[in-house]
Structure of Ribosome maturation factor RimM:
Amino acid sequence: MRDADLVVMGFVRGAFGVRGWVKIQADTEHADSLFDYPQWWLKQKNGEWKSYTFEDGAIQPKALVVKFEEVDDRDIAEAMRGMQIAIPRADLPTPPDDEFYWVDLIGLEVVNRDNVVLGKVLNLLETGANDVLVVRGETEERLIPFVSDYIVDVDLAAKRITVDWGLDY
């Protein structure tokens, strides 16, 4: 499996218990949505991706705990600490119109209505009220609310977001 075919959804925080369960830090809107996928891909220490079969899972206060069919031992589970977890992009549902996966926005060039480049999307923040683009330019970083008042167009094919945002904001 190639990196381009996968979407990273979190990472293994460590072992949970003695029967091969692992703690998962999910980087998804709804952490338990990972339970919908029967096959997970974990990036091994050598950089290769390996498939694991989801067997069972539970929601804990600060993390998910997951049991994979292939892992029955705490030592093996602990050795998985830090491994990234990914799902094949082809398995993800198509987002509704005007909604995007964050992973698809990161790295896009951001320009304003005057076609001035403000930078590239470094990350997104969830504030509760709305998501915020973290845009890094050559000399500064801007936080732009990801709402229709400021987002004019998102063109994934052109790898560009057009915003209604001045240089002096």
